[in-house]
Request: fold
Amino acid sequence: MPHTVNATIVYPHTRSPRVQKGREYQMAPPPNPDFFHRVGGYPDTREEFASLILSYIDASNTRPRLDKNTILSPLECRPEMAISSSTQHRPVLPLVRHPMFKREQCNFALTRRLHGGSYKWSQVWLATMYLRGLLQLGSATVVVKLYQESRYEWAQSELEEGYNPIFAAIEYADRLAKNEAWAYDRLRELQGRVIPWSYGFFKFRLPNGEISFAQVMEYVDGPLVSTFSSIARPPYAGLETMLDRAAQSLWEIHRCGVAHGDTVMLQNMILHPHSQTIVFIDFTYARSAAEGENAVRARGNDFLAILGVLHEFLPARDRDLLHAEMLWAERRKREDVPWKQLLFDADAADPYYYIFSFSEID
Reply:
């Protein structure tokens, strides 16, 4: 028998929990202070935090888990998304435009896990969406991203003596979900082109009894850039093309005031098979890219992370590959490409990037 899970769709507008003093990294402020809230509040003491973790361990070990038979069924539907008629944007699913979708009459049947497991910040599933009572309209494929705390690293391991619960505060599921909601709100004009369409944020009660935030979004059916190992092999065919496309997309994201914020870009870039656009995914750790020294560093680190993708293809950094990067970067700095500021931001973030890179292979 399939599991049936109740859910509540919520606007991508959020309420930030108490700010923990002394944190070096603070996520971007939410666009609305009144929406997301954590059921049950936040643990204030080590004992309360330990109790939370033990409940997650119990839920993971003794209760049903998500599988391809799980059906997600919303209780409330209040999606919010940008819908553009521009030919530059990918079309929005007709089922999402249907009035019944906004009246909560939609189900999601999980079909295949795309990313996740233990010690992961999110569980990402491919799902089939259909409208209840209107099966004649067909179905559509979407992505469901669950921020399931019981699968987090700190929820899967034993508490160490002296562990302080504020260390995990930045990673509570509601904070990660609402930070991604903030990013998608700022990037509305890029949805359906440089990033996936967002069809709404949800709240689920999972088969193990856990309450989880989730996002439902467009499925971009294209290969990850990480599969193009040929670009990092002599004579580096396609290297400049990939860098140009990635830089163009990243520059548009930065223009909207958002830095991606993930230091591992390997799984976060998809090549759209038709437009050949690099589509960025996973904005869980997005931050503001507005003016200021920290914003310049955030933008520069984004681009350095893209360069780091290339080195994942090789067992060690290759001198010829780095030389090809340098030639490309210096040439683009002299050319009139709209995104060349990315290169200067990368220099500001780490002016010794290539010096250190070459020293590693000497």
Remarks:
- Residues 293-311 form the longest helix (19 residues).
- The first strand starts at residue 4 and ends at 10.
- Residues 1-31, 358-362 have pLDDT under 50 and may be disordered.
